[in-house]
Write a structure and sequence with these properties.
Elements lengths: L1 E4 L2 E7 L8 E7 L3 E5 L6 H16 L3 E6 L5 H4 L2 H8 L8 E3 L1 H6 L8 E2 L5 E4 L2 E7 L8 E5 L4 E5 L17 H13 L4 E4 L8 H26 L4 H8 L8 H17 L4 E3 L4 E3 L1
Parallel strand pairs: 4-5, 5-6, 6-7, 11-12
Antiparallel strand pairs: 1-2, 2-3, 3-4, 8-9, 9-10, 10-11, 13-14
Helix pairs in contact: 5-6, 6-8, 7-8
Amino acid sequence: MRSVAAGIGVVPVRTPTLPPATHTNTYVVGEGALTVFDPASPWEDERTRLALAIQERLDGGERIERIVLTHHHQDHVSGAEALRVRFATPEHPIPIVAHPITAGLVAHHIRVDDAWEGEETLTCGGRRLTALFTPGHAPGHLVFQDEDSGVMIAGDMVAGIGTVLISPLDGDLGAYLDSLQAMRSRSPSLLLPAHGDALPQAEGLLAFYIAHRHQRTEQIRQALDVKGVTTPRELVRLVYTDLAPVAWPVAEAQILSHLRWMARHGLAQPQADETRWVG
C-alpha cells in the first residue's frame, strides 16, 4: 500500500473501467481504525491483492471501521461485499456507507448500512473527513475532504487519466458543473481521483474542468449553427476531429449530455426524440 497523503494510502486495483484507465484507486484512510473507499474489483485475483495489502495493516493491530462507496458504478463497488465478508466478525461488523441514492442503486447486490447525504463529518482513525454531495457524474456521488490537510478524495469528479464521462443515462452536466464549483469553493489542496495519480493545484484544475465543459458546449453550438439540424454522431465528427472511431460511442454520449444542458438554457432544441438537434 502506497502513501499518497498524510494518513491516506492507496491500492490501485484492476477494474472493468473506461479506457485509457485500467484501475480504480482504493483509498485507505486513518490509522488504527481504517476507512476503505471504493473496493472496486469484480475479479478474485485483484480482490485478493487488495485484501493482502489491507491484511498487512490489520496484522499490525489495526481494523476496518467502515467501507465507503463514492457512487454506484461497478468499477467502484464490485469488491465491497467481498471485502466485508472477508474481514467482518460478529464482534467487529463492517458497515458499508453511501449516499441514499447510491444505496438504492446497488441494493440488489450490496447492503448499505449507513446513508449519508453530504455535510456529515466522520472520524477515520485520527483524520476528520467531511462528506460533500456532488451529483452530476452519478446521481448519488460523494466526495470527502480531510479537514486538516484539505486533501479531497474525489471519486469520478476528476480523473488523473482519461476523462470524466457525463453519461445521459445517469449523469447531468448542469449538476456536474455545480458540483465542481462546490468542490472548488472548499479550496482543496490535493485531489485524489479514482483513476490515475493524485492531482495538485486542485483549485486551478477544477476551474479548468468547468471552463473546458463550457468550451465544449460552445463548440457544439457553433457546429449546430454551421450544419443546422444534426445528430449527436455527426456532432462527434465535427467536434472531436482527432478522435478514433472506437471512442465515438462514448463521445456521442458526452455530446448528448451537453445538448440536454443546452436545451435547458435555450441553446439547442431536440427533434425526433433527441435523435436530431437544431441550434
